[in-house]
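We were asked to recover a plausible sequence for a given structure. The inputs and outputs are reproduced exactly as logged, with field labels preserved.

PROBLEM: sequence recovery
POSITIONS: 242
GIVEN STRUCTURE:
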């Protein structure tokens, strides 16, 4: 496998064709879609269409702080596509220690990095350790400050993959605009999180997500009390291994 040649090839493929090529190249068992409970449900729709009777691996990070609507949406997605989401949970001892030391809402005072590290990054690291390819719903137009250069396919430098080997990341929707994603979701009658109808374009944990105001960018509703350049939780910002 030539990663550089693959990267060039993937840049020219539609999201559906990119998914098909990914499953052909990496196999079904070593590939998984990370699902946030937002518009990245489109990836599940496309993957199921590509695979036919087979089902893709889908995982989600259950931080324990998600909206009730998101949990119900997870169940709806499982029923609609006939699959089981692989839920990833934080280490109970680490959550207990954080809350006992700093309370339930320390991120409003000292930033979200520590909480996200415990509730999201560490569980993600465990899940990715048995994969060769991680499929995400990142798009370049989601955040001009942090995601404008997202490639369709690349080596992920922050997380090791299966057996400590390289982990590759595929972002099939990277070149799609938000409007195109939603046009496709509606055209194919794909189920979506009801929180979107309440103005929450980017959906995360309940305390850290709000509806965006007219004219605001979609990521403005995440960690709104922090600077725009800090609106990542560590999942896609190349954290150092360890």
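RECOVERED SEQUENCE:
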């Amino acid at each position: 496998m030539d990663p550089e040649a693959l990267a060039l090839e993937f840049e020219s493929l539609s999201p559906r064709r990119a998914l098909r090529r990914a499953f052909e190249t990496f196999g079904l068992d070593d590939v998984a879609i990370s699902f946030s409970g937002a518009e990245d449900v489109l990836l599940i729709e496309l993957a199921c269409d590509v695979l036919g009777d087979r089902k893709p691996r889908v995982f989600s990070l259950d931080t324990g702080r998600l909206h009730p609507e998101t949990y119900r949406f997870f169940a709806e997605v499982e029923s609609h596509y006939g699959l089981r989401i692989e839920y990833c949970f934080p280490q109970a001892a680490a959550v207990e220690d954080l809350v006992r030391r700093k309370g339930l809402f320390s991120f409003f005072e000292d930033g979200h990095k520590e909480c996200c590290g415990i509730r999201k990054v560490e569980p993600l690291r465990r899940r990715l350790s048995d994969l060769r390819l991680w499929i995400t719903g990142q798009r370049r137009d989601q955040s001009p400050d942090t995601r404008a250069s997202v490639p369709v396919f690349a080596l992920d430098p922050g997380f090791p993959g299966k057996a400590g080997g390289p982990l590759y990341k595929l972002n099939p929707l990277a070149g799609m605009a938000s409007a195109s994603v939603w046009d496709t979701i509606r055209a194919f009658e794909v189920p979506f999180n009801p929180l979107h109808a309440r103005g929450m374009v980017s959906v995360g944990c309940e305390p850290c997500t709000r509806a965006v105001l007219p004219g605001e960018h979609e990521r403005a509703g995440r960690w709104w009390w922090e600077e725009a350049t800090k609106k990542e939780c560590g999942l896609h910002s190349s954290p150092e291994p360890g």
